[in-house]
């Protein structure tokens, strides 16, 4: 090989290598959707630890609801997102291929039906004839409808408005609605001029459990298992800190201040909201009761029960035979407290 050919060959080789490196770098980009819920792991969004741990360039985008996030996933704009079980059930029932790989929280007191002072609502028996609201296709919307049904009422007896949380707060403050089933920061805002009538946990105990989860498109999950493991390990680090070091999460803590800067509200409000969470350890999540067990997965059963209820309500047209394929414990393998 003469010098000219050797240089050309080297150039081709370097070009190929450069193309490969660029391609690999491009592959390590992901768009992750989050919401305004107070979660310990959101500190890692603020400080960049998710990107550092996974080695990916992460574009974090904030949304107002799980329904909006699933619309973005369906359009191809988002690959990973934080969603509730009701929009999750609706999305996969309509054919969207996603997998839940980490449970952010389960039904607790972080979501609740708050009724306005002066609305005339003192107990659940006073809901007939009232106007209530929840975010469209959210876990709160699902639980509000389930609550109404458990009381022997229908949407003809109780007016239910499916509107985004910012609109719920505005309508509530104007006196246009009597109450809203919401999460923070709307929960804190509504409680300023009202009281909690029933919590998400109480509705779950009546037979309508919910959860919130981090999901990934099935294609992204299959192609990027190391990313999901790294992402899950960061979440677990912050959850473990929250469980073991309460002083690090108080109203004067750097963590609470980071959450306030990222999500809005004050550090005191964020610290208070965190106390309302019901969190699960990786070991519990990986069990058959939640993400493990394939078709026997408990989270899959919750999705199916939710989809069945949504079909009764005319919100979805089909219920799948099994929802276990949409949850996985793979990212939790080797992850511990």
TrEMBL record:
- Secretion signal: which residues? 1-25
One GO BP annotation is: alkanesulfonate transmembrane transport
Where it sits in the cell: the answer is: Periplasm
Question: What UniProt keywords are attached to this protein's entry?
Answer: Signal
Q: Which domain of life is it from?
A: Bacteria
Keyword Disulfide bond set for record: no
InterPro entries, per this entry? Peri-bd_TauA (IPR010068), Solute-binding_3/MltF_N (IPR001638), SsuA/THI5 (IPR015168)
Gene Ontology annotations for the cellular component aspect, listed alphabetically? periplasmic space
Domain Solute-binding protein family 3/N-terminal as annotated: residue spans: 29-252
Q: Which residues form a coiled coil?
A: none
- Entries under NCBIfam families matching the protein: taurine_ABC_bnd (TIGR01729)
The entry assigns this protein to a family as follows: Belongs to the bacterial solute-binding protein SsuA/TauA family.
- What is the name of this protein? Taurine ABC transporter substrate-binding protein
The gene for this chain is tauA
């Amino acid at each position: 090989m003469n010098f000219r050919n050797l240089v050309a060959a080297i150039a081709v080789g370097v070009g190929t290598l450069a193309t490969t490196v660029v391609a690999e770098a491009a592959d390590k980009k992901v768009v992750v959707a989050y919401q305004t819920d107070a979660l310990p792991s959101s500190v890692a969004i603020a400080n960049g630890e998710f990107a550092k741990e996974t080695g990916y360039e992460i574009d974090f985008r904030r949304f107002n609801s799980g329904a909006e996030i699933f619309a973005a996933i369906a359009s191809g704009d988002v690959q990973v997102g934080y969603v509730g079980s009701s929009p999750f059930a609706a999305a996969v029932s309509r054919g969207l291929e996603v997998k839940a790989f980490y449970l952010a929280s389960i039904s607790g007191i972080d979501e609740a039906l708050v009724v306005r002072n002066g609305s005339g609502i003192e107990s659940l028996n006073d809901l007939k004839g009232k106007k209530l609201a929840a975010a469209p296709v959210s876990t709160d919307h699902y639980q509000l409808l389930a609550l109404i049904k458990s009381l022997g009422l229908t949407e003809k007896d109780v007016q239910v408005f499916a509107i985004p949380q910012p609109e719920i707060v505005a309508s509530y403050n104007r006196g246009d609605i009597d109450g809203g089933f919401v999460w923070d920061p709307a929960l804190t805002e509504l409680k300023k001029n009202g009281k909690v009538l029933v919590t998400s946990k109480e509705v779950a105990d009546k037979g309508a459990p919910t959860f919130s989860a981090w999901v990934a498109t099935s294609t992204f999950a299959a192609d990027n298992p190391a990313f999901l493991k790294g992402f899950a390990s960061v979440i677990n680090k912050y959850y473990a800190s929250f469980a073991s070091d309460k002083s690090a999460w108080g109203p004067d803590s750097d963590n609470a201040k980071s959450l306030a800067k990222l999500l809005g509200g004050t550090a005191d409000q964020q610290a208070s909201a965190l106390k309302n969470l019901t969190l699960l350890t990786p070991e519990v999540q990986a069990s058959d009761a939640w993400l493990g067990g394939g078709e026997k997965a408990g989270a899959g059963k919750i999705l199916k029960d939710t989809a069945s209820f949504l079909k009764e309500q005319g919100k979805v047209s089909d219920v799948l035979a099994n929802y276990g394929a949409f949850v996985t414990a793979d990212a939790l393998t080797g992850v511990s407290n």
